[in-house]
Amino acid sequence: MALGRIRTDLALETKEKFEEDNVEIRGVIIEEDYNEEKDIRTTTVKIETENGAKAMGRPQGVYITLEAPNMSVPDEDYHREISKELAKHIRKLVPMEKELTALVVGLGNREVTPDALGPDVVSNLRITRHVIQEYGVQSMGREYANSISGLVPGVMAQTGMETLEIIKGVVDETKPDVVFAVDALAARSTKRLNRTIQITDTGINPGSGVGNHRNGLSEETLGVKVIGIGVPTVVDAATIVQDSMAHLLDTLEESEKKEFLEEMIAPSLHSMFVTPKDVDETVKRLSYTISEGLNMAFEQA
Amino acid sequence: MALGRIRTDLALETKEKFEEDNVEIRGVIIEEDYNEEKDIRTTTVKIETENGAKAMGRPQGVYITLEAPNMSVPDEDYHREISKELAKHIRKLVPMEKELTALVVGLGNREVTPDALGPDVVSNLRITRHVIQEYGVQSMGREYANSISGLVPGVMAQTGMETLEIIKGVVDETKPDVVFAVDALAARSTKRLNRTIQITDTGINPGSGVGNHRNGLSEETLGVKVIGIGVPTVVDAATIVQDSMAHLLDTLEESEKKEFLEEMIAPSLHSMFVTPKDVDETVKRLSYTISEGLNMAFEQA
Amino acid sequence: MALGRIRTDLALETKEKFEEDNVEIRGVIIEEDYNEEKDIRTTTVKIETENGAKAMGRPQGVYITLEAPNMSVPDEDYHREISKELAKHIRKLVPMEKELTALVVGLGNREVTPDALGPDVVSNLRITRHVIQEYGVQSMGREYANSISGLVPGVMAQTGMETLEIIKGVVDETKPDVVFAVDALAARSTKRLNRTIQITDTGINPGSGVGNHRNGLSEETLGVKVIGIGVPTVVDAATIVQDSMAHLLDTLEESEKKEFLEEMIAPSLHSMFVTPKDVDETVKRLSYTISEGLNMAFEQA
Amino acid sequence: MALGRIRTDLALETKEKFEEDNVEIRGVIIEEDYNEEKDIRTTTVKIETENGAKAMGRPQGVYITLEAPNMSVPDEDYHREISKELAKHIRKLVPMEKELTALVVGLGNREVTPDALGPDVVSNLRITRHVIQEYGVQSMGREYANSISGLVPGVMAQTGMETLEIIKGVVDETKPDVVFAVDALAARSTKRLNRTIQITDTGINPGSGVGNHRNGLSEETLGVKVIGIGVPTVVDAATIVQDSMAHLLDTLEESEKKEFLEEMIAPSLHSMFVTPKDVDETVKRLSYTISEGLNMAFEQA
């Protein structure tokens, strides 16, 4: 079935798509883990070859996905568990053996509720760089402290600049060891919205995010390691229609299918997104969970 | 074609639905007017009988719809024209022969971008009641001044109260002559989003608005005249799927149809909405256009 | 020394003023308690007679003040201690022997940083009334649950209505057992800013708060018990000048003093307030501490 | 009278200080103009020599101050006049003979009401750079169009970075011809708050602004011309006390004076600011007036 490009920012969903179609991809390794007590499912997709990258439509690297059905529910203890899991994975991708300087970038538009995740994460972070630069590490009351800075670059309609231009400028000027880029993502399935976190060492890819960055943020474009952290908060409106129709389309001839898809999915749908009605509370809570995860990762001795 | 209840807050869309099906409804009068120069289409739907009300699924009264394709575009002069049109219709529905006391209520959730229209409108209004109460009408520098108050009640998840309870309390206490209730609406078609204003003397009906008020705001429930002003800013996600499939479904048997509809439209879709990606700028601009329309209506001598 | 009316919303500061002047007031009982470990000082001022009320310039009742120098510092564990103390005092003033229905009102202007405390508190509360009304207490997963509603009425410049009118309307309509009114207060001394919480069973008094309510919120005006909870976040600009000059003025003759005060304190100063530069973070943190205190008070079995 | 350093960001106030003391400064030229009809006073201070710069405590360059008593009043037509005046002065400082690329930077903390001026200005600007880069100047519907970008860098407590570092990075990357830096300023006198605009070709100087930038933004530090545009929205709390006491102090001996100043102005006052109670509406209005002035300056043919 060739429904055209189903847009998803989750490597996990691309993988599932292949499984549905019973296709095996070489160069892609998948590990799954389910913590029954915490009800957190962890899937690691490793794209190890150029071939795997081509098939998956995304760069070589590691994509870790935490799925937790209760992530969108207000239970403080449960969110703390997720923050811990997130911190653990971050520290695996970025070993903090020595003191680290990290820039956390909150991508997205703080004026659009489902896209405000990145900016919200940065506003809950414990920023330390200016204190360490002024008074030294010992002023932090700990022997060891990472130097953390934060940036909310805004979106192109607000700035007239590519997000990459702004971040590249700031990276060149302040020279962090690593960039963490936090973004609201688009999923293929509404079931995943606000209950999935993807962490990847490949950064943020073009076409990714609610606001659709044109140029990726990666080691290649920024010159330093980039860890991408994302939560799907929207589904493209066109995707929802395609998905809902999938079974129905199976009853039709191939030529009929194509015609229907072209006719039925109004072009305007491609500039629309689908999001849950309670997106405000959920994004607020999730952004706190992620900033706590980052705070934990940065502050562990 | 019985697709079940297509949800729309626009009387205009209900009317169109009947036209599509070539059904004529008694007790409903429709007038259309197109101003070519300004590119504003005005449709007035008058529901005059109990029968018409039943067929249309909404109370007897007048529903005026302004459609202006450029309403979502940033052109200050054009928006001023729409404000003027709006003011004109408001003054027809609420003749301001003597000094009026009006309460403008901004319904919706200011934390959810497409639902912030009502709260944004109230924050741009020229509030006068407290000045007139303290210093008299003459202090306004005009011979004649309406007494305008404003309220942003919030939504049930934030307050634990029905919006009706809050407004009824405030109306009983402050006794305005008329209530204007401004709300973000749900349309059936994405084409109408952010380019349509509905003004009605029936108030706000149950099931209306992005946040789905359970109890209507009307003369019956509040004891004073209620003018509802709304702009469709979202489409229910389920509606979009239904609509996209309409033609496809025509190829199927009636029994197959029902089955597909039940299977395909995931229940979770009913708690989702579809909205344009640039909803932040558009809602900000439209809320300004509407508050200017209200300001003009209130301030003309 | 008669510096005219030194404006303060803290009963504690009025008391100190008398102590400075070595005046003892009959009908006013004072208890002090200092928890060294937690570094929290608790002062209870009980105004027990009409005479005491006159001398203190505020109604008969209990005024509890928590002073904690670290309250303005970001230490989560410490803030939890303060929330606990607050919950303890609330439960003493409002015994929760049976299920309670409480309305929490967030006074102040959410657009002015030091005045946003009240609105911020309400947005962090766990609201339950709508759930209990719809699904019953058992739906809360506990045997026992208080019915909590919340309201952010706005300020007169935004609404054209007295805050009292709005709240009275909502109280008459929804009939809570008790109202909690949370407000940003004015202190006399900058030392108290953002490190003091006052809890009182007399509600909110006229002239109180950053925005200066003209009509008090009390059992007398609302018909139900009103607990006032406030944090001083500003000092009146005129007060700061007066206080800074106190010693200097002592060197002058009484007639010179009066002249200086009239000349020196520009009338415009009375429409100004003084606030710390880091007021944004501090108010955010304190509002969270207070809503947690309220959540704890409401949820203990 | 040596009250120590009276802090003001307005060259005009420094000049007045010298006049009070009957001191004439060489190398500083002053021109005044009063438009009676519009009630706008324009003062141009030109610091032309190194000596003048030393005396005035600020770099050589042009400082234009517009004073308009009604600037803090909501009169749309009057604000348009101020926007026009502002546009006129901008075009004198930055001749727009050929197409210009300009970066407008909104300094300050959007979470603190009086410091939100800069961020608010940027959010009302018409940003064009991304459209011109993608589709060319002709896509703007005009023969001629300046390329405008905007940036809200945040403050050091939020980012951990010097504002200069962020802006320098972005300037190096995007290479604008000129930077406009908009900031909320500190005045010495409350009379000037929210009714004065200062425009200078010297950029933003250290110690300037509500948030106190440590490193200036100037041609020297950024490598491109920097126009500073500022409105005083606060007065330092310590300044208000000093100023109120000025006359009183005149009655004292020099040695007494010093003692009083040291004792009376509590160190905590230096971390406080004074601002009008209606700062929210005023800053919103002024930021709109300034962005309109910039829009006009950029869009005139």
TrEMBL record, chains A, B, C, D:
GO terms for molecular function: hydrolase activity. Homotetramer. Initiates the rapid degradation of small, acid-soluble proteins during spore germination. NCBIfam families: GPR (TIGR01441). Pfam families: Peptidase_A25 (PF03418). Residues 1-9 form a propeptide. This is Germination protease. Autoproteolytically processed. The inactive tetrameric zymogen termed p46 autoprocesses to a smaller form termed p41, which is active only during spore germination. It catalyses: Endopeptidase action with P4 Glu or Asp, P1 preferably Glu > Asp, P1' hydrophobic and P2' Ala. The keyword Manganese does not apply. Its EC number is 3.4.24.78. InterPro entries: Pept_HybD-like_dom_sf, Peptidase_A25. Keywords: Hydrolase, Protease, Zymogen. Belongs to the peptidase A25 family. Signal peptide: none annotated. It comes from the Bacteria.
